[in-house]
Design brief:
The protein has about 270 residues and is mainly alpha-helical. It is about 75% helix and about 0% strand. It is built from ten helices and two strands, in the order H-H-E-E-H-H-H-H-H-H-H-H. It has a two-stranded antiparallel sheet.
């Protein structure tokens, strides 16, 4: 039985707290930049206008730099010793392609389920729809798209599958650590609907990270999920019947991918220093 480490468990909450502090720092920095440039694309609840592109880039860049340094100097060398053997370049390419396909399937599966639920319970999903519309509207800037598709996945993986997961593994072992880091990832989104599917996705990302002994595969998978959410239009899902078919097909494919992944040998795709 794994020995429970209270100190490491307490430290595992620190990254989440830091992300909330960064949120407000980035907000006020973005407000200042918006004021000087005279441009805005988002009205905040307090009446202030903030360019969401500025906000997202500042927020995620701070997270990326801070937690990149944190992970590098606190955990990188420790877990590097646990890496699986590097196999061939061909195997690495196939693994990366598999992670991209897995990300697309996950997005299809989750989005189709949400599409059905939203059609039946529109009031419950009102806040969620507002969040999605703000990211996929016609006024979304290129800065927002780049930050959400590329910078955010790297930053969030460093926070949750990097620093948080590493602390939790030292606190309670890998199995419980996978669950707890996923729960913290869900809380981080501060929205019930987003939090639920972020938690489920966080479990898969945690398993991927633990299996490959580094966070790069989880980053690839996370980018694939976020990218496909932008590239696949809402009209693709159609009505309830089409959504049901997508759920069945993507769900079956996910089961196959996960089963095949469990049978195959994990490989390292960590970039060299």
């Amino acid at each position: 039985m794994e020995k429970y480490n209270k100190k490491m468990f307490a430290l595992s909450f620190l990254p989440l707290v830091v992300t909330f502090i960064i949120y407000y720092i980035a907000y006020f920095a973005a407000f200042f930049m918006t004021f000087i440039t005279g441009g805005s694309d988002t009205a905040a609840s307090d009446g202030l206008f903030v360019n969401e592109g500025f906000f997202n880039v500042i927020r995620f860049l701070i997270m990326l730099i801070l937690f990149g340094v944190w992970y590098k100097y606190r955990f990188y060398d420790i877990y590097k010793k646990e890496e699986a053997d590097i196999i061939t370049k061909k195997k690495v390419i196939l693994t990366i392609l598999s992670l991209i396909v897995l990300g697309i399937l996950l997005q299809l599966f989750i989005s189709a389920i949400l599409k059905i639920l939203i059609s039946h319970f529109p009031d419950f999903f009102k806040s969620y729809n507002e969040i999605i519309d703000s990211f996929k509207g016609s006024k979304v800037s290129i800065l927002t798209v780049i930050s959400v598709i590329i910078i955010a996945p790297i930053a969030e993986e460093l926070v949750f599958r990097g620093v948080t997961f590493s602390y939790l593994q030292e606190a309670m072992g890998p199995r419980l650590a996978i669950i707890f880091q996923a729960l913290l990832f869900g809380i981080y989104h501060l929205d019930l609907v987003q939090g639920i599917y972020a938690t489920l996705t966080g479990v898969i990302l945690g398993i991927i990270c633990y299996r490959f002994k580094n966070i790069l595969p989880a980053i690839i998978l996370h980018i694939a999920i976020n990218c496909s959410s932008f590239l696949i239009p809402a009209s693709f899902y159609g009505g309830t019947k089409k959504c049901t078919a997508i759920i069945l097909l993507s769900g079956a494919s996910l089961i196959f991918f996960i089963y095949y992944s469990c049978l195959s040998k994990a490989i390292s795709i960590r970039p060299s220093k």
